[in-house]
Each structure stands twice: as structure tokens, then as C-alpha cells.
Amino acid sequence: MRRPRTAAGKRLVDSMNEALARTSTDIGQTLVWSEQEEAALERAGETVDRAEKVRKLLDSALKADEPNPSVVVKLSAELRMLDKQVVDLIGKLNPEGEGPAKSQRHVRAARSRWDRSAGGA
Asked: Which candidate, 98, 90, 80, 87, places its Cα nearest to that of 42?
């Protein structure tokens, strides 16, 4: 896996790897990222790197005597999109256990359907 270049990207990857190691210790088994999870983690680190560059551009645009509103809006939108993408990519990781990550909302909905009494139709 390629390592991110910025400190923020490295922190993200390191914290997710630590979470996986912590889970491995807790359950007494060595867990590793699947190929899909590893690709998502790599992309998340790269996305954080890009977000740092955009954040610097936005900061410099805002420091101008008269910031260009069009540039500020575009950079802000790009930064929001990159932040959302990181959250989405991290959501694909499942350091808590084996198998693909699952939406907690969908898990609760499925359990409520299956946990209904067998006698009621």
C-alpha cells in the first residue's frame, strides 16, 4: 500500500491500522485488511492528502485583501466533497470484525424484522 504524503493522511492510515491491531489483540487472532479494505484505506489517505492541499489554497485565498468569492466557494465545495469522500471510504473498513462493514441502521432494521414473534404474520 502506498503511504500518504501529508501528516494528516499518515495519521488516518496509522489510526485505522492501530484499530485493526487492537481488534486483533482483543479477539486473539491476527486480522488483516481485505484487498477492498486496503484499497479504500489507501484512497482515503490520498484523499486526505488532497484535502490538505485544498485547505492550504483556501486559507491563502481567504488571506487576500479582497478574497475572490467564486474561488472561495469553489474551494469550499471541493473541501466538503473530499471530507465526505474520506468518511465514505473509512465507512467501508471494518476493523471491528470479519466480513464487510455493515450499516448499523440497516442491521437494526433487519433485526427488527427477524426478531418479530413467530406467531404474528
From this structure: 90
- The pTM of the full predicted model, rounded to 2 decimals, is 0.73
Alpha helices, DSSP H, located in 28-68: 35-63
Average pLDDT over the chain reads 87
HSE-CB at 86 with a 13 A cutoff on CA atoms is 18
8: CB partners within 8 A, 6+ apart: 48, 49, 51, 52
Instruction: Provide the pLDDT for residue 99.
Output: 55
Largest CA distance in the chain: 72
Question: Where do the domains of the chain lie?
Answer: 7-114
Residue 53, CB-side half-sphere exposure with 13 Å CA sphere: 9
